[in-house]
Amino acid sequence: MADNWLSTLLTDTPQEGYDLAVLMVRTAVKMTQADPAVRGELRAVYGKDADALIAVSTVVAAHFQTVAAANNYWRV
Amino acid sequence: MADNWLSTLLTDTPQEGYDLAVLMVRTAVKMTQADPAVRGELRAVYGKDADALIAVSTVVAAHFQTVAAANNYWRV
Amino acid sequence: MADNWLSTLLTDTPQEGYDLAVLMVRTAVKMTQADPAVRGELRAVYGKDADALIAVSTVVAAHFQTVAAANNYWRV
Amino acid sequence: MADNWLSTLLTDTPQEGYDLAVLMVRTAVKMTQADPAVRGELRAVYGKDADALIAVSTVVAAHFQTVAAANNYWRV
Amino acid sequence: MADNWLSTLLTDTPQEGYDLAVLMVRTAVKMTQADPAVRGELRAVYGKDADALIAVSTVVAAHFQTVAAANNYWRV
Amino acid sequence: MADNWLSTLLTDTPQEGYDLAVLMVRTAVKMTQADPAVRGELRAVYGKDADALIAVSTVVAAHFQTVAAANNYWRV
Questions:
Q1: What superkingdom heads the lineage (chains A, B, C, D, E, F) (predicted)?
Q2: Residue D24 to residues B62, C13, C18, D29, D56: CA-CA distances in angstroms?
Q3: Fewer CB within 10 Å of terminal CB in chain B, N or C?
Q4: Each residue's pLDDT tens digit, F35-74
Q5: Residue F29 — very low, low, confident or very high, per pLDDT cuts 50/70/90?
Q6: Per-residue pLDDT tens for F2-13?
Q7: How many whole angstroms separate alpha carbon A76 and alpha carbon B10?
Q8: Which has more confidence, A1 or E8?
Q9: Between the CA of residue E3 and those of C17, D16, E6, E7, E60, what are the distances in Å?
Q10: Sign of CA dihedral A51, A55, A57, A58
Q11: Arithmetic mean of pLDDT over chain E
Q12: Which one of C73, C74, C75, C76 makes the best mutation probe of the D interface by having the most chain D beta carbons within 10 Å?
């Protein structure tokens, strides 16, 4: 994990904000399970598990709420 | 996934905002499981699973909170 | 599903707002599982499943947060 | 369920707000499962199920967020 | 449960706010399962169950959001 | 657990805010299960459990929402 992976919540577009939310979920997983081999196995499992896919979406949604608020919802 | 699928959170009506929230959930799933064949199988499963249907609703609700705030709740 | 089922988030009372939140959950389920027969079977199952009943309540609560904010919490 | 069970989100104290949040959870359950006998059986089950007890707490917390915001957090 | 257990959401420090959030979770559990003996058994179970421990954390986080907002995040 | 582990929600950067959110989750777990040996066993389990890893991410996301709001999203 890069030393400096989250220097700002501001993005140019909602889509970049969404990508940031996805990155934030992945980083949380890395901070809990540091071993990339174990993470690789887990990803193979949950990629085929509807419940896990939906659960990941829930976390993305929560981070996107934060990022969107930070950007004032990208209103002009 | 289109290169530019989320250019704005602003919609004309709450209903269009709700549709956008549904799209955002689907995109999160695509970003986690890129293979459309696997996604198709999963959809067949969770479409008949009450727990999964409810879980999907949870994520839609979270994204709708964001979209609604972005639109100032479509107050006139 | 009616073409125009969500034209506003504004309601006269908190209770009507709560009813709207329930409607929003039901619509999310419909958008994921379009077949009313399958939905009917699922409802029979989750109506007797404490976990599912509680999970539905969670989604209602999330939508009610949105509706309540839209209505400035019905403060006079 | 009384016809008029949620006429306001305003309460005098945080504790009354908390009680209102609990009421809102119970009402959501009633709206999903109308039969009091079935609800009674379910309550007997989830009252002894740690996961269900915690899940109920989650919904109470979500409604309390709404009620607390409505009351400006009971700041004087 | 004391008659008057939640008279204010205001605390002097974030840490006291966190403690209050924990108290609010415990109280929700008490309101659902009034029997302390049953609660004791459940606590023994979920104290050794990773999923339940995480679930409790979720509810604490939700209440802490409310308490933190009430205190304007303890900004000076 | 240090006596004074949460004296402020303010951090210099989003990344430090994220680290604080992770700390808040760990503290909630400690307050529910005080025995470090039991926590160690549980961590070994959920570190290899995709569902638990995702669930931890959910709680981190909730606390990060709070911390980010406290810091006005680190907007300059």
A1: Bacteria
A2: 19, 14, 9, 9, 11
A3: C
A4: 889 888 888 877 788 888 888 899 999 999 999 999 999 9
A5: confident
A6: 568 999 999 999
A7: 10
A8: E8
A9: 31, 11, 9, 10, 22
A10: positive
A11: 88
A12: C73
Q: Which of D53, D66, D67, D74 to mutate to test the interface with E (most CBs of E within 10 A)?
A: D53
Q: Quick one: what percent of chain C has pLDDT higher than 70? A: 96
Chain segment B18-60, per-residue pLDDT in tens: 999 999 988 877 887 888 898 888 888 777 888 888 888 999 9
Burial class (CB in 10 A: 0-12, 13-18, 19+), A44: exposed
Nearest CA-CA distance, residue C13 and chain B, Å:
16
Do E and C touch, 3+ Cβ pairs within 8 Å? The answer is: no
Inter-chain CB proximity F74 and A8 less than 8 Å: yes
Gap between the Cα atoms of D24 and D18, Å rounded: 10
- The distance from CA F7 to its chain's CA centroid, rounded to whole angstroms, is 15
> Within 10 Å of residue F76's Cβ, how many Cβ atoms?
5
Q: Which residues have C-beta within 8 Å of that of residue C75, sequence separation ≥ 6? A: D10, D70
Is the per-residue pLDDT at E76 higher than 90? no
Does residue E59 contact residue D54 with C-beta atoms inside 8 Å?
yes
CA distance B57 to chain C (A): 5
Interface contact E63-D61, CB threshold 8 A: yes
Pair of tokens at residue C45: 């199952």
